[in-house]
Design a protein that fits this description.
This protein is mainly beta and 533 residues long. The chain has 7 helices and 32 strands.
Length: 533
């Protein structure tokens, strides 16, 4: 028996034995940032922005990783390939606009010689445009989506396994300073010969075995991304969310998916239980859920998201919140959800005609930096002045600060500020000033916000909806979402970006400078009646 067949036989035997043992693992988000799966909540090529990214292998093992970019409206795949990292390796790339046949389209530029299949580093100067072929979710099933949907979105990296030490695959993925890799060997391993025999590389899906030289994922990956705008002089950096416990030995070697195909996905882990920490330090377990994706969703479940905002006019301040549902398509889109109806905790399904799947949420309170909420004036139009405490027993005028609205995309942006700038091109879609997002909801200073700075809270477990289309929300149109694994809310992640402008620098106090920063969202978890301790 040759080495490859022997390796495959041993792996198959170990996989069978591992399947006998019950899993003690649970999906969890590692607060220290290392994991088997990395979720990067946002990329954009809009508004003169581009996004640089990196992933780091902190282990002494070579690894096979699935890299997948998804557009922001319905998480349709726009680019998918395999990345093979040597021990201690770092891989970098940039998401930006690429000129194809005279047209600028979003895509990936790779200037890193770590191995990918196909080998993108040598592909047209490292340029790989995003592709429309995965967006055939239109009313016309033979039509593909507009590539403009891919100008913003998010991406994920899934460890498919460890390359067996000293194997042909591990050696091919290894590179050192000043030496080129032998990535063509890995490309050949996936290649099917065109001759009459049908023979090909040892990983090819026709006559080979993708499990050869592959061992169980061990984690130890971390990554991050930065959104840069050279003309504005800004850079917004964030860390990827790291998930551990995605798979155990029961999937020994079987996650290693063929390049150009959608497997493995976030639904292919064999762990169907998630665990999270509660505020009191206790661990809440979901219990066994129906699918692997449900365990991923469970660890992202929150009933409230909170963050700061600033919109001061004197420093041209702007704030935008990125809100990403990294598992939403598995609940609202039938090919992935396996249901024509929305799957809880989501309440809508993807509408191909409108390109939306809207979820009701509520910005339930907005505060300024002095803990005031939206209180504007008395019935006669006079401002309400501050008073001493204890307060006298008088009727207070306190307009309802609740702002119900809908988030209709996998990746949405909430923009805080004044009226949106007029698009530079007549008839163009309005976009946000910082990220250039067209998938946004705007909170207007003049009509809704009332304060230049402070903090706000987004409520997702309880929501209001005008279900009878009367134009008003009645008291009986207030609802609570069905819990997932005992937690109420929605699976969500993201961050806030703030930008500032200073035009008073230099000797003449006329030098313009721009600044920016990222604030991670803060959140709470709320247990429902089905919670498992």
């Amino acid at each position: 028996m040759n080495r490859k067949n022997l390796t495959a036989a041993v792996l198959a035997g170990l996989a069978g034995a591992a399947g006998i043992v019950g899993s003690a693992q649970a999906v969890n988000i590692n607060p220290d940032g290392l994991g088997q799966v990395l979720i990067y909540p946002y990329y954009t090529t809009n508004g003169d922005n581009f996004t640089i990214l990196s992933v780091v292998n902190t282990t002494d093992q070579a690894k096979a990783i699935k890299v997948r970019f998804k557009e922001g409206k319905n998480s349709r795949e726009v680019l998918d390939f395999n990345l093979y990292m040597s021990a201690w390796d770092v891989w970098t790339a940039a998401v930006t606009n690429i000129v194809v046949d005279g047209e600028a389209v979003p895509g990936l530029i790779v200037n890193d010689n770590s191995c990918t299949v196909p080998y993108l580093y040598e592909n047209e100067g490292g340029k790989q445009p995003f592709l429309v072929f995965g967006m055939s979710d239109q009313t016309d099933p033979d039509a593909f989506g507009d590539i403009s949907r891919a100008t913003e979105g998010y991406f994920e990296m899934i460890e498919m396994g460890v390359l067996t030490e000293d194997s042909e695959s591990a050696i091919s993925a290894t590179h050192k300073a000043g030496e080129m890799t032998t990535c063509q060997n890995l490309v050949d391993a996936w290649t099917v010969d065109d001759d009459i025999t049908g023979l090909g590389g040892y990983w090819n899906p026709v006559t080979g075995n993708p499990a050869i030289d592959i061992e169980t994922p061990t984690g130890g990956l971390f990554g991050g991304a930065s959104i840069l705008n050279v003309s504005a002089g800004t850079m917004y950096s964030y860390d990827a969310k790291a998930i551990n416990g995605f798979v155990d030995a029961g999937l020994f070697g079987t996650l290693h998916g063929e390049p150009g195909f959608s497997l493995p996905s976030l639904n292919d882990g064999n762990i169907t239980e998630g665990k999270v920490f509660l505020d009191n330090g206790e661990v809440l377990a979901s219990g066994d859920l129906s699918r692997g994706i449900d365990a991923i969703s469970f660890v992202f479940m929150h009933d409230q998201i909170m963050n700061e905002y600033t919109t001061e006019g004197v420093i041209a301040a702007e704030t935008e919140w990125v809100l990403t549902f990294p598992t939403k398509s598995y609940y609202v889109y039938e090919p992935e959800s396996s249901s024509p109806n929305p799957v809880a905790p989501f309440i809508s399904t993807w509408d191909a005609a409108t390109e939306k799947a809207c979820e009701n949420v509520t910005l339930d309170t907005i505060w300024d930096r002095n803990e005031r909420t939206i209180v504007t004036e008395t019935p006669d139009g006079e401002p309400i002045p501050p008073i001493v405490s204890p307060r006298p027993p008088v009727d207070e005028i306190n307009p309802d600060p609740v702002i119900p609205f809908e988030l209709c995309y996998e990746v949405s942006v909430i923009r805080f500020g004044g009226p949106l700038p007029t698009p530079k091109i007549e008839g163009a879609v309005a976009t946000t000033p910082i990220l250039g997002s067209s998938n946004f909801h705007s909170i207007d200073n003049e009509t809704e916000l009332n304060f230049e700075n402070g903090w706000a809270r987004l409520q997702m477990a309880d929501y209001k909806a005008d279900e009878d289309d009367s134009g008003t929300i009645d008291p009986d149109e207030e609802f609570t979402r069905t819990a997932l694994g005992g937690l109420e809310g929605l699976p969500i992640t993201g961050f806030a970006v703030e930008s500032f402008e200073n035009g008073f620098l230099g000797d003449g106090a006329d030098v313009l400078a721009n600044y920016g920063g990222v604030l991670q969202h803060k959140a709470t978890r709320r247990m429902g009646s089905s919670a498992v301790q």
